[in-house]
Amino acid sequence: MERGKTIMELNKRLQETPFNIIDRLRAFPRRPSFMGFTLFFVAILLNSIVRGPGEFFSVSTMNTLFVTQMPFLLLVLAQGILLISGTLDVSIGIQLGLVNVVTIMTIQEWGVPFIVGAMFGILVAMIASLVCWLLVSVWRLPTLLASFALISVILGVNVLIMDVPQGRLPMEIFHMYNATIFGFVPAAALALILVMVIWLFIKRTPFGTNIYAVGANPQNAYAAGISPVKVQFQAFMFKGFITGIAGICLTMNALSGNPLQGEALGLRSLAACIVGGLTFGGWGTMSSALYGGSFMILVQSMMHPLFSWLSEMFPGLQLGTYWHNMISDTIIFLGLLLSIVTIKGQREALRISIRDKYSSKRREDHAK
Length: 368
Fold this sequence. Notes:
Layout: H1 2-15, H2 21-27, H3 34-51, H4 53-56, H5 59-84, H6 92-110, H7 114-138, H8 143-161, H9 171-177, E1 180-181, E2 185-186, H10 189-202, H11 206-216, H12 218-223, H13 228-254, H14 265-275, H15 286-313, H16 321-367
Antiparallel strand pairs: 1-2
Helix pairs in contact: 1-16, 3-15, 5-10, 5-13, 5-14, 5-15, 6-7, 6-8, 6-13, 7-8, 7-13, 11-13, 14-15, 14-16, 15-16
C-alpha cells in the first residue's frame, strides 16, 4: 500500500510543469523522458555526421522517414498507453498486419471506397484489443503469455482472410500519403499529430489521471473508487484505435496486403518504450515513447549510409545485412541499458526526496 502511494506521488510530481523556463530545464533531468530525449538527440547528431546536415534535414529525407516509419512510431505510442496503465500487448505488431489485410480485402472483395475499408481496419484492431483486454484484465491471465499466444491466433486469422500477399490500391492513395504540406510538412505526420492531440485532450479528463493511478497501484486505485478493469478497457480501446491508424498508414504506403508482416514489431515497440523511459507502474509519459521510438528509427536508418561511407573509406570492405542489424541492435541495447539505469536512479532519488519531505513535515508537526 505504502509503495503504491509513493509511486503515485512520484508521478504527480513528475507531471507538475514549472512555469519558469529555467525551472523547467532544471527539472528536466528528473523526468522519465530525459534519457529518451538524450538518446534521440544523440541519434540526430550521429545521422547529421554520417549523412551530412544538408542531406539529413532535407525535405525528402524527412518525408521518407515519416512515410516509411510512421506505422512503427504509432505502434510505440499505442504500446506506451498500455504500459502507463500497467499492462502490455506483444501481439500489437501482428495486429498491424490484421488491419492491412482487412482493409485490402474489404476494398477488393466488396468494392467499397478506401475510407470505408480503412474504417473496417480500425474496427478490427479495436476488436483485437478488446480480446486482449478480456484475457489480461478480466480473466487475469498472465499478460505476456496471453498476448504472445494471441499472436498465433491473429496470424491464423490473417492467413484465413488473405492466404497469399495480394491486392493493389490506386497509386493516388500513395501520392496522398507521400505528399508534403506547404512544401515541407510530411502528410504522414498528420497521423502522429492526430494521436498526440487526442492524447493531450485525454490527459485533461478523469481517464488521463486514472490511468496513472491504476498503473502505479491497481489495489490503491480500486480503494479510491477507480475501476482498474474499466480504465484498462479504455486504454486498450485507445491503443486499438492507434494501431488501426498505424495499419492504415502501412496500407497507404504498401498499396497491397501481406498477412505475415508486422509480427516482430510487438517486442520492438515494447523495447522502444523502455528506451524512452516508459516502464510499468505508471512511470513515464507519451513523450517518452515518442523519443524511444524515434531513437530506434534513426539508429536503423543510419546503418545504410554509415556502411556506404565505410565502403568508400575502405575499398573492398563488404559487410552484409547481418552486420547492419548487429550494430544497430547493439546500439539500441546500450541505449536500453542506459535508460533502465537512469530510470532506477530517478525513481530512487525522488523516493528519497519525498520520504525526507514527509519526515520533515512529521517532525514539525511533532514539535508543535
